[in-house]
Amino acid sequence: MLNEEDRQGLDTPETIVRADRDLVALGIAVAAILLFVGLGGSVLPSALSSVFSDGEAPDPSHASALLLNIALVIFGWRRYRELKAEIAERRRAEEHARRLAEIDPLTGCLNRRSMAKASTAIRADATTRGLGLAYCMIDLDNFKKINDLHGHALGDAVLVELASRIQARLPDAAKLARLGGDEFGFITSFDPANRAGIDDVVARLYEQVSKPFEHDGTLIDASISIGVASDHDENGFNLDMADIGALMQRADIAMYHAKKQGKNRYFWFEPAMENELRFRNELEIGIRNGLRTGQFVPYYEQQVDLDSGRLVGFEMLARWNSPKMGMVSPEIFIPIAEEIGVISDLSEHLLRQALVEAIDWADDLTLAVNISPVQLRDPWFAQKLLKLLVEHNFPPHRLEIEITESCLHENIGLVRSLIASLRNQGVQVSIDDFGTGYSSLEQLRTLPFDRIKIDRSFIGELTNPESGSQIVDAIVSLGRGLDLPITAEGIEDRAILDALKQMGKLKGQGYLYGRPETGEQVRQRLAASGQLSKRAQSIREDASSAKHAHSLAPVEPTEIDLTRSASLGS
Ligand code: C2E
Ligand code: MG
Ligand code: MG
Description:
Distance between the termini: 67 Å
Strand content: 15-25%
Bound molecules: ligand C2E, magnesium ion
Shape: elongated
Radius of gyration: 40 Å
């Protein structure tokens, strides 16, 4: 973008032309000089002889004309010099403005607009030489995190360094542009019979970027994701890719695919990726709509004391009741909700429903909820959660927050203070899917968790004669050593349950005890076992006795009933 200073220095061609026209001043100066030569030739000798040898003085009108002529020469010459300097300055400003309009000021690469022009030129050249075109989209992985952790100055330095490393490894004729924040793209012509040539270029880029970035003594490990699209495939020229815009868009889709596949990798565009993206866009729109129209509902999975079989609480599991796709698993929509920034709203929406339902359960039943790593980055998360509890009059000690092990990797300092403030208020915190992340023993020892939940992938292996129970055994001993109670997830059958019971006093959950249920199913289950809160139980009894009385009483239609039914019927 141009700043005010740049804009002031920017001259339109019109002003330059006006300055050019003022070259008339030069003409006047030249004419004045010629006049001076003519006039001076006759007036000066007589003036000199009158001064030095008593000659006749020149005609006074000629002398005045000569003086005027000298003044004109000086004026005209100075004006000419000034104008020349002015025009040179204006041309410099114009060149500067042109560069600003075409070049990314931070990295010196082309920008999106000038890249379009450069691409058209490369295309024309490639067509005449019978070459193909490849467009590579490059995106820095986790750039937001680099900015957040180290500040924007360092973020900028990384971008500058990245641009120069990429540029250093590109073929001479390739054009590199910065297309957005941390997104770069380059276009190059290549021999369509040798796609491997492009693979080599990309491999060289990875080699360059894999070296750490150093700025003011800070070392940053960065990685990039790349998508490549070409206007030639195995069948030759692909008409669908004739347009540079289409080529660029497909390179972008391939890059997006690389991100989805775990970042730090590259993919050539394939048509299937486009469908994937379309489906993903539909999901995004569906999630936003669903959130507005209340399609997300909490389901509950029983948690049981394994020894006694006694119900101790429920884990709330999100479900999306989509009108288009039916019941959708959280494993599909939670990552998207995280990415599009609606996870906090979604989570609050679910938690509000769950608190309303769980307040009617017996006092000794807990409610466990899963919290996304994205929510943990919010420094106000604990306060918001406690406010919700107060609003719903829900005792904090009945709430259990589940944090997945992978969160610890993200921002241990924030997690530590979050756990501390939640526990101060009486909320319990457990570490979920334990065994699948990278928590160190040190973290386990120093973070004040209340419970470990062993991931169901290990529990499922318990009855496998090959892998056996070693991992679960080890985690159970770890829990015992750290004085952390354990919950086993994914108990699917009796054999697993029996194996777990041998290991000590554990809690557990899994399909053996039933699939996750709706709030109403849970209410019926608790009503049957007498585990609703006293208030909820008596409301239920009142409602059912009123229904019972109503069904015994003779139905006598009142006048109002009659009018109403008449109007409804019409
Ligand atoms: P999780 O917290 O580990 O939840 C347990 C998952 O295991 C649930 O899957 C549950 O249905 C499934 N499960 C329970 N018992 C068994 C069993 O015996 N066998 C098998 N094979 N699976 C069992 P679900 O509901 O699909 O949830 C998947 C994950 O999605 C959850 O894993 C949790 O990480 C996440 N999730 C669910 N609800 C929410 C939510 O409201 N917010 C956030 N941030 N994440 C959620
Ligand atoms: Mg969980
Ligand atoms: Mg889990």
